[in-house]
User: What shape does this take?
Amino acid sequence: MASNGGREHWGSKLGFVLAAAGSAVGLGNIWKFPYVTGSNGGAAFVLIYLLFVLILGLPIMIAELVIGRHTEKDPVGAFKLMAGRSPWTIVGYLGVLSGFFILSFYSVVGGWTIGYIVKSISGSVAALHDSDSAKSLFSAFTSDPLQMIFYNLLFIVSCMFIVIKGIKNGVERWNKILMPLLFIILFVLIGKGLTMEGGLSGLSFFLKPDFSKITAASIIAAMGQAFFSLSLGMGAMITYGSYLSPNEKILNSAFYIVILDTLVAILAGLAIFPAVFAMNMSPQEGAGLIFHIIPVVFGNMPYGSIFSVLFFILLFIAALTSGISLLEVITAYTIDELGWKRQRAVLVFGSIIFLLGIPSALSFGVLADAKLLGALTFFDFMDKLTTNYMLPIGGFCIAVFLGWKYGLDKTIHELDPDTKIISLKELWAFFIKFISPVLVLILFIMLLRSDFIGR
Ligand code: PHE
Assistant: This one.
């Protein structure tokens, strides 16, 4: 459909899959997934999460990549091209706005990872031998306004630096080198956690479901986590799909991305929970969980400080490859729709995101008591607004638009030729029309009830 022949494309299939997986794999898997799992009762939550990844995440991932390649546009441009001047373009704008909101708090946690690289190098992580000292290190760090703002800025500037360089030389090159390293270090952590005394009870918390712990709120958290972790519902995958050349296979790539992302989340859980239980800590520590646990694991390990430096560098990189996909959505929109130069777009919007992130950066210190809606810090508010509301609404609209409004007949040729006995294309079409949107709708009604009526 699209005719802009000059659009930059990914250099290779592997480059694209790794970049899209790099967008998906990030703090969502290693920082968020363990603490959300811990706060929602463990294994039963994990099962529901996996189910949602399969029946919501995978079909919507394919839908976004299809829209992206079909139109070769940013999310706003894509909807303009496919729907003309109609309210559907709001979905594109909503995606760009989600990019702003998510990056504004994401970069705070990204900043923590940089801070912990510094702490690992300076030896303050290696000096931690118990969880109490790890907790006080973390809270002293996150309540210091100057450090929070400084590291937040550093993270955003790192994202800006790569996005300015563009797709092939910036985004693609970095992902290719760094993704594989992340796996190795996770395996080291798992090995250590499992051999700690008491570690096995952590394993059963993570793997043996107890369905009595499931509540409406945890089902909704699982849906939000699936969207967040897979980078869905805001057009990140539309944008990355728009740089995909016509001969790449979308179904096949989507499978790889989803499997990689899920694998990293599971490995992170396997790395964290045995250590949590071995150290007699509660899995419900909230956003500080991995920062309370992992430094102590390293602190009690031979060569721990080297591993710790390596771990936080890799976590930083994983966060960076997701952060750049968030910034790329906004950048692609301004380049495609407003005709801006890449550099100007990145500088202007990077700065705005930094400013928007300041209240989130201060949410663990001076603004800890400034609660919105009665209960949420600014950081929590941004997180909840995007994860539970904006991304699922975006995903729902994408599914309904493609399945019912634009028509699958016009786009299904974007998918790989079918050779299987059951047509994967038809299976996808069925899910994107009937299963995914209906499920999101039901969950959304549950969410509204629990957030507004249940109180
Ligand atoms: N998926 C990323 C992570 O898990 C976060 C993200 C969300 C990135 C939405 C882009 C879009 O860390």
